[in-house]
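User: Hi! I'm a student and our assignment asks us to look at how structure tokens line up with a sequence. Could you show me two examples?

Assistant: Happy to help. In each example below, the sequence comes first and the structure tokens follow. Example one:
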Amino acid sequence: MTGADAAPIRGNQHRALSILTIGYFVGFAGVVVYGPVATEFEDVLGLSGVLLGLLVAAPQLTGSLLRIPFSAWADSAGAKKPFAILLGLSALGMGGLLTILITTYPDGLSMVHYPLIFVFGALSGCGIAAFSVGITDITYWYRANRRGTMLALFAGLGTTSPGLFTIVSPIALGAVGLTGTYAAWFVFLLVGTVVFVMFAVDSPYFQYRKRGLEESEAKAKAADAGQELFPSGDAMQSIRTAATIPRSWMLTAMFFVSFGGYLALTTWYPSYWHNLHGLDIQTAGIVTALTFTLLSALFRAAGGAVSDRFGGEVTTISSFVVVVVSTLALVFTHDLYVALVATVTLGAGLGVASAAIYQLLPRYVPDAVGGASGLVGGLGGFGGFVVPPILGLFVDLQGVSGYATGFVVYLVVGLLALAIAVSLYRDQPAPTTPSVPAPADD
């Protein structure tokens, strides 16, 4: 045995969770790269409801679809490298957007620049895809009895950044202007990327593999270090394996509603509060953050513990009942206070459901966690890109009242997700015993 083989692993599960959460916090802020200041772009460019919906959803295009290949890559090479690349791409997109603003804003900015603004917004959203990479890594770091709680902490705390940026961006817009706001954001991304690269560590199995150990020996030593689950094949094999399991697609459909809904409404709500209820831009951002974005993230952080206690199936059923009732209220009300209460409950339902779905994932797809994480997070999160233009279409067709009636979209998909959750409850798999015993967590 060489000295490298005998050396202890770098870091521990708590360090991994901390730096992954920080990195995700940095990257996930890209969700709202346009949302909180959408009115500024809407006024300068003269955007229709559909074009506005496409613009605020641009970060979700890459942030969702890149989850599939990058999480599977993490399943074959470890999480640090793909995670760092995603953060770097996000910084590159923000740098491109900043360059456009420096050279054209305000007098030279026009619809001619819309395609570039869309592309750089999409590139800025690459950091969102780090979600599935982090989910894969944490799944390998933690044992089953704590995994749901730790996954929810990672996802819940990491997703607080859009809420904070939804508050800060309109304030920064008033203080330093649009260009200054994005310049500060660019620096934030660069610093966050450097911090992640300096402190991130791969899970034990990948550390031993990178030291040259054969697969069987690396698994044995990683098991001694506390790792319970292991990748079963290369990146593409992980995706193919997950895609052959029907439950992967059921989880994906539910995540399309829960997390996709969170992404879509985080970017759409500022315009909803501003145009339907008459709140100014700064107030609309603060209300969005406090009643939905931040609150939903906190509910998501608690959702893992709830799922571990009561079971993911029961938790998803309860959560989607809350989603259906909340959206039904939002469709028919123009009253500000009713809308505030319905938004809070909607955010709670979406947040807890998102946590419960990922608590179920390792149990439903134990042989392809990375591939399943990519499918669920990527195609599921794609709801954040698909839905805002549809909401914009309601506005184009019905005017201001379309901001309310557009919620019928979530009423319908919420009912579909509820039906899937009930189906999973009726046909849930029996508990499995890990094939490799593991010592207690650190």
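Example two works the same way, sequence first and then tokens:
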Amino acid sequence: MSVLSAAVPASGGAIRTGALVSYGLLGMPLAFVALPIYVHLPGLYAEAGLSLASIGTLLLIARAWDAFTDPLIGWWSDRRGVRRYAIAAAVPMLITGYAGLLAPPQGPSASLWLLGMLFLVYLGYSLASVNHHALGAELALDPHQRTRLAAAREGFALAGVLLAAILPGMLSSSLSEGLAQLRVVFALGLLAGVMAIWRLQPVARPVSQATGQVFDALRAPAFRSLLRVFAFSGIAAAIPASLVLFFVADVLQAGNYTGLFLGLYFVAGAAGLPFWVWFARRRGKAFAWGAGMLLAVLSFAGAGALGPGDTVSFAIVCLLSGLALGADLALPASMLADLVERERIGAGSCFGWWNFMAKLNLALAAGCALPLLGWLGYVPGAAGQAGHAALAWVYAGVPAFLKLVALGLLWRLARRERES
């Protein structure tokens, strides 16, 4: 008998800590994929001879491919019912593509190499992450246990982000050597995560989508409503993430503290996960997520009032917004898992569209916020009170407004569910 089937009987008992670790562990190496791609790749491929414009274009093409494969992968995995096998199939793609990305060839071939390795990594990542999320919806029958599973996954993912940021420097004084060793850590972590997943046995069988279509999940009104809340809340969170480096450097004039601020943010997010799990059980997931949104709004409002030298105050903002991040990470996915069980929709299809929206949120945040800043007169690194005021408004004011919109949509969704 597997660890999870022993811990979660058909009636929906408590999940043991070992099962939570077995499920969540895969989130750590998967989190390694994002940071090196956006932090290290531009410099690596610029040294290989590519222009920054070419690198940016290739990243955009690959990201578009990545987003549109998620719903297809989710639909396919529902049809086949092969969550763990799909995750295992992603391993060679991820290991090969990740190693290739961090070792670019010199010369004209670097552009094709970058695009090919990005396609491979993104395909493997989507195959693994969509099925990992869907599996979490099928490992427990009790709503609170689904929240614990989602929190475990996101907690390991936050740890993975931090490790991917600090390990290259810890492993070697040379960045290239540190990245080479990071590939080994990634491969070992990925294998360990898949082996841990293999011990788990779903207690809720996947809903057959054999006669369904890719867009079937979007035809469910409850799913569309929850997806709208997730979209507005996600864009609100992605805008500050896109602009934080500019805000710290030009508004706070504290660029040397950027790493500290980001560390506080992610550590607070991970540390707050147990609180949101507890609070959701006491007051309900929608109420707890709404409380997290209000906390984020207060954090944004505080950030908008800061100026040069307000590093301590911004550290407090990072802690509060990081705590709010914990609610965004654990509760929406858990609510979706409950919806999958209640509406009898394919978990893979739902999480495929969910991941698509998460990636679209990032694209919309950068694609809207950066041109808006340019139109308002902000120039990175240039002095100018008007430009800095515009940056503070877009960094803090726009996300606060979008979070309030998301909160209103969430309140309406919760009221409709109470009345039904």
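Here is something you could point out in your write-up. Confidence is low (pLDDT under 50) at residues 1-12.
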